[in-house]
Structure formats: structure tokens, C-alpha cells
Design brief:
By secondary structure, the protein is α/β, with parallel strands linked by helices. The protein has two domains: 5-176, no CATH class; 198-398, TIM Barrel (Alpha-Beta Barrel). Helix content is 37%, strand content 21%.
Length: 399
């Protein structure tokens, strides 16, 4: 987030630590997973104003035989960039701890020793309900056996308001009456063009290739769009809903400049590990956010990791989404090497190829102009996925 370097650095460090531990424990020396595990780290705002911004981080880990989840909140003052631990929301952390203990008194399964140890470190999640009550939460196993699940405590406003510090009062206002801090891009005025149709170009006669970019929009996407505009090239993006929410101007610009916009779910969870309602939410939430920001309803989706099945495609069909995989994986996420990315695309591309890349990596953005020039020198025409496939059908898999 622009101007909030302490927050950015803190979240980046904690995320990179979690990823490093995941790679250490679940990825072999050859670089491949030893089983089929998934680590997914996502976030959402729990309060937003010029005086307080709250971020809820969610870490989802699926080891195959078991699933674990953890949450924590971080608060920041946008005016100063100062990070505030949860304890800064109250005048006296001891009063908060006592109130939590009292609320949990008599609750089945609570381990007093674990509770006291956790409270000494600080409540991991502290936020506000829509009614203004103070909400505290603990992960599975944190203060009770895993069979009791996630433990939550709600302290009514009549009790908790007098406990709040001035910053805590600002945080509550940010939760109940959210507004957009100046550093966050607001929803743009929509000036969009329709998605390109299959009638735009005839790939039965031309040597077509579709470049696709996943996981954005992000901090490097505008530079990619500048390149595509200069090269008069149109591509297809598969965007994450949570990123569209964070970079609405970039999302709107992408569609306004004639590129095709598909979704990549809301938070990049592995869909095959989710229940049908969870799959539906991951897809529909991203569709609605993309439509809200760009004015165009997506008709394509790409499942994270390419993990899908008939059950997933049934949910996608109900939302009018065709499933788009790829025929060339540049591995740009792994190597982060511009020369290698260019070489792989130019060496492997054939007629009707769908090329997988990610616009969140600066090395990929840097590779794109050379990729475009190289493909065009070889007689390829760059098209969108819809142009390449000829209006793909909802619920059908393409690659």
C-alpha cells in the first residue's frame, strides 16, 4: 500500500517466512512438492478510514490429510504509517485480558494455562462486529483442543467502549463507517470497451497465440499495460478478486484498453480442496467484483494451480464461466529470470498456444516486449483467449 512501508514490510516479512517454512517442510530438493500440499495467504480489511486501517490476515494450509487455518489482525494509522498491535486498541491490555477471561469462564474445553500464555502475547484477532461490539478470536489449538474449533469472544459495546483507547475508538469508527484512505485508489469512472469476440480475428487462417497473465492486478500491471499499448497487443488477464478490490483503477484500465478479463478466483485457494459452497463463493465473489469495477461480467476463469474437476466446472457453468488452462507454462513464478521467460515462450510456442505468465512479477513484465517482438517476427498474431478458441462455452475445459 503506497505510503505504508512499515505495514508493507511487516506483512511481506511474515508472508515470506511462512512460505520459506512451507518450502522447507513440503518441497523436496528437486523443487517439487513431496505430497500435494497448499499454502494460501490472503487478507481483507476490517476497518478503513483516514485515521485507522485494519487488516485481517488469513493463512490456510492443506497438508492433504488435514487442514489448518490461522488469523491475525494488524492495525495502522494511515496518517503516520505507525503500526499498532491489537493491544493499542485499548487503554489497558490487562483490562482486555480480564474481560476475555471472564467471558470464557465456564466455557467447555478452555485450557487456562494456554489461555494465559496466549493473552500474555496478545489477542491474535481484535476487531469489531457490525453492531460495534469488540470481537476477539483465537485459532484452533491455541487455547483449547482442536476439536473445539476456533474460539471467539464478543464483548458488548456497553462494556468495551470504555476500554477503548483514542486509536481504538478511531478503529471502531473505521469498522462501522468505513471510508477510503487517500492512498488507496478509489473506484474509477468506468469507460470500458466490450470484451473482444471471436469474430474480431480469424484464427483458422492466422497463426494465433494467446498470452495470458495471472494473479494481478498488482504494482507492475500498469507498466505491462503501457507495453501492450505501445505494441498494439491485446492479451487475457485472469485476475484475483482481492487484487481487483485493491487495484480498481488498474482493473478498469485493463478492460478499457481492450484486453480480456477473466477471473482467477477471489483468493487463489485450491478449488478441489474446498466444499461446493466454498467454491461457489470463491468464483462468484470474484465475478461480482470484476463486474462492479470494470462494468463487464467475466466469462472465463482459470483455476489456481490448474486444479479442477467436473464438480468445479459445474459451479463455473452456473456462473457462465468457461475453464481456461494453458499449453505453455513459462515457470516465470519460479525462476524470475527475464531471459529464460523469453526463451521458453519463443522456443515452445506453436499455433493456438495459450501461454501462462504472471503480471505480478517485474521480470515477466520486462520479458513481455521481447516476447511480443519475437512472436510477431515468427509470424504469430497475438489474440485474446476468446478470439483463439471461438467463444468458449461455460463449464467446458480448454487448454
Amino acid at each position: 500500500m503506497p505510503g505504508l512501508e512499515r505495514l508493507n514490510n511487516g506483512l511481506t516479512q511474515s508472508t515470506e517466512t511462512a512460505v520459506a517454512e512451507f518450502r522447507r517442510d513440503y518441497v523436496s530438493e528437486s523443487g517439487t512438492a513431496v505430497a500435494d500440499p497448499e499454502l494460501n495467504i490472503s487478507w481483507e480489511t476490517v476497518g478503513s478510514s483516514k485515521d485507522a486501517l485494519g487488516i485481517l490476515m488469513h493463512e490456510y494450509f492443506n497438508a492433504g490429510a488435514s487442514v489448518s487455518e490461522s488469523w491475525y489482525t494488524t492495525w495502522v494509522d494511515p496518517n503516520t504509517g505507525v503500526l499498532h498491535p491489537n493491544r493499542d486498541l485499548v487503554k489497558d491490555p490487562a483490562d482486555l485480558n480480564d474481560a476475555v477471561r471472564e467471558a470464557l469462564r465456564g466455557s467447555e474445553g478452555i485450557d487456562t494455562e494456554l489461555l494465559n500464555t496466549t493473552l500474555a502475547k496478545g489477542v491474535p484477532v481484535l476487531a469489531f462486529t457490525k453492531y460495534g461490539d469488540l470481537f476477539a478470536a483465537f485459532d484452533e489449538y491455541q487455547i483449547a483442543a482442536g476439536s473445539y474449533g476456533r474460539i471467539t469472544v464478543t464483548l458488548p459495546a456497553s462494556q468495551s467502549d470504555e476500554m477503548l483507547s483514542p486509536f481504538g475508538a478511531a478503529a471502531k469508527k473505521a469498522a462501522l463507517d468505513p471510508s477510503t484512505p487517500e492512498f488507496v485508489a478509489t473506484e474509477p469512472t468506468r469507460t470500458v470497451k466490450p470484451h473482444p469476440s471471436a469474430e474480431t480475428v480469424d484464427c483458422a487462417k492466422l497463426k494465433c497465440v494467446a498470452l495470458t497473465y495471472d494473479d494481478g492486478p498488482g504494482g507492475h500491471t500498469n507498466r505491462l499495460l503501457d507495453t501492450l499499448k505501445k505494441k498494439h497487443a491485446r492479451v487475457t488477464f485472469f485476475a484475483l478478486g482481492q487484487q481487483i478490490e485493491m487495484f480498481p483503477k488498474v482493473a478498469a484500465r485493463t478492460v478499457a484498453e481492450g484486453h480480456e478479463y477473466g477471473i482467477h478466483t477471489w483468493s487463489h485457494k485450491q478449488l478441489t480442496a474446498l466444499s461446493p459452497p466454498q467454491v461457489r463463493k470463491e468464483l462468484s465473489r470474484a465475478v461480482l467484483e470484476a463486474e462492479r469495477i470494470t462494468g463487464i461480467r467475466p466469462t472465463l476463469y482459470r483455476p489456481p494451480y490448474g486444479a479442477s474437476n467436473e464438480r468445479i466446472r459445474k459451479e463455473a457453468k452456473a456462473l457462465g464461466l468457461a475453464e481456461i488452462l494453458w499449453s505453455i507454462d513459462t515457470l516465470d513464478w519460479k525462476d524470475r529470470n527475464t531471459d529464460l521467460i523469453v526463451q521458453r515462450v519463443l522456443d515452445q510456442t506453436r499455433r493456438n498456444s495459450i501461454v501462462l505468465m504472471h503480471d505480478i512479477h517485474p521480470t515477466t513484465v520486462a520479458a513481455t516486449p521481447r516476447i511480443i517482438d519475437g512472436l510477431q517476427d515468427r509470424g504469430f498474431t497475438l489474440v485474446t483467449v476468446t478470439e483463439l478458441l471461438g467463444n468458449p462455452k461455460p463449464g467446458v475445459k480448454y487448454r
